[in-house]
Amino acid sequence: MELKGLLKTQAYINGKWVGAASGKTFDVTNPATGEIIAAIPDMDRSDVQKAIDAADAAWPAYRDMTGKERAGIMRNWFNLMMENKDELAYLMTIESGKVMTESLGEVTYGASFIEWFAEEAKRAYGDVIPQHTRDRRLVVIKQSVGVAAAITPWNFPLAMITRKVGPALAAGSPVIVKPPSETPLTGLAISYLAENAGFPPGVYNTVTSTNSSEVGKEFCENKKVRKLSFTGSTPVGKILMSQSAPTLKKLSLELGGNAPFIVFDDADIDAAVKGALISKYRHNGQTCVCVNRILVQDKVYDEFVDKFTQAVQGLKSGNVLDKDVQVGPLINEKGLNKVKEFIKDAVDKGAIITTGGKGTGGLFFQPTVLANATQEMIIAREEVFGPVAPIFRFHTEEEAIQMANDTEYGLASYFYSKDVNRCWRVAEALEYGMVGINEGIISTEVAPFGGMKESGFGREGSKYGMDYFMEIKYLCYGGVKS
Ligand SMILES: NC(=O)C1=CN([C@@H]2O[C@H](COP(=O)(O)OP(=O)(O)OC[C@H]3O[C@@H](n4cnc5c(N)ncnc54)[C@H](OP(=O)(O)O)[C@@H]3O)[C@@H](O)[C@H]2O)C=CC1
Ligand SMILES: O=C(O)CCCC(=O)O
């Protein structure tokens, strides 16, 4: 495909395309074929410092622009993403293995955060508080938090960047993005579009590196960075939080999940099968909101297992660039080994494979269903991040809630029931930041995305998203004579 200048092999700092000061590079490979796509700069802390300095220098002028002016540039950027949708999706597919239809969906989804926050830029309203003494007037304004850094994962090479930089840029904060080393090319491509959209030099920066722990330390320790937003694993989130303590860096952490999907015996079983299928096998099970555990009530257990197994057998594997293919490869060897290890552990402990269970060459693995799953299995506790659906059995509503909440995670959860009273009860009892009720896909730019417990904190998207990139300032006018 003709990529119209979108395949960038340099990083983007202070409005310039640059290599690493050390001259080092690293290769980006296609997980579906193993082919090398490009070599890009392998930066170290000195390069990251340059990006931070540039962002800090750009901050005063950028924050002084009106919301409407910032919105104009963001709107240009959104339009450019949509005009280059096919090219961005192609790049995403070849570097991440995400099937083409899903990549096209992610470009639209990712761009929607820029459209949404461009509109929000004009509405960063403050407040007037009724005075508590006659000679005072109390006003609250919201101001940009300052330079913001973003560390993003490979499973959403575009949307996890835009969901962070959208609110930051709208609020008046320059950004430095560190995309994942597996999938940096989509992030570089949108940096090129950001340049063309008209962001002033230093407002939008992208650094690439395989030395993520050093980049993370610089973001946490550098006092010019006022905010760090991270999506990725819980262990790395904890490292970033402890590294941020000395500078009291403001943090948003969107971490791992262990999503339950509960099917009650009063549910529409066909709808539940459809919801579980799309939620489990989205990006081959590699999202933090993918179903990790399916909990099914006794009476409908066998029916659900049969119908779900049949539906999974209908998923189409093949060339990820074909628009009707639904199953791609795992991102890397580590991901593939995790899948194999979790299946072996489950089978050793009594699970039955009703479909799948085998690798099909390279990083590809069959979509797999495990019946008779139990709490003793690793998959009950840890995120598999792959195409494996364990199905657990429960007897009562209380037991389902107890099983669902029996995890340190609290990101997404789902349940199916036709009983309205039960829907309210269960939704309120689930200790999760997001609950899908008779829905398997819940992500949208208009709703708050984020978790509880060890799934992190902060909310992205929606009317709440910008608050995490703004300071609330209270102004007290005294001596007002009436
Ligand atoms: N919440 C979510 O959406 C995600 C959850 N995960 C979970 O994490 C597991 C492992 O996936 P993995 O990709 O290794 O996730 P990581 O948390 O290791 O990686 C996510 C991002 O953090 C960066 N990173 C890694 N270590 C550090 C560090 N010490 N300091 C700063 N940044 C760092 C990575 O950079 P680099 O790529 O250069 O290493 C990447 O940009 C998955 O199996 C899944 O369970 C993974 C991805 C997303
Ligand atoms: O898996 C993730 O990293 C979170 C993104 C998922 C979504 O936005 O639906």
Automatic annotation (TrEMBL):
Any Pfam family from its record, for instance, is Aldedh
Q: Which residues form the Aldehyde dehydrogenase domain?
A: 17-474
Which GO cellular component does the record give, naming just one? cytosol
Q: Which CDD domains match?
A: ALDH_F5_SSADH_GabD
Checking Gene3D superfamilies in the record gives: Aldehyde Dehydrogenase, Chain A, domain 1 (3.40.605.10), Aldehyde Dehydrogenase, Chain A, domain 2 (3.40.309.10)
> SUPFAM superfamilies, from UniProt?
ALDH-like (SSF53720)
Annotated catalytic residues: 254
* A biological process from GO: gamma-aminobutyric acid catabolic process
NAD as a keyword of this entry, yes or no, is no
Keywords recorded for this protein, A-Z = Oxidoreductase
Q: In its keyword annotation, does this UniProt entry include Manganese?
A: no
- Origin: domain of life: Bacteria
Under the heading InterPro entries, the entry gives: Ald_DH/histidinol_DH, Ald_DH_C, Ald_DH_CS_CYS, Ald_DH_CS_GLU, Ald_DH_N, Aldehyde_DH_dom, Aldehyde_DH_Superfamily, Succ_semiAld_DH
GO-annotated molecular function: succinate-semialdehyde dehydrogenase (NAD+) activity
Tell me which family the UniProt entry assigns to this protein: Belongs to the aldehyde dehydrogenase family.
Name it: NAD-dependent succinate-semialdehyde dehydrogenase
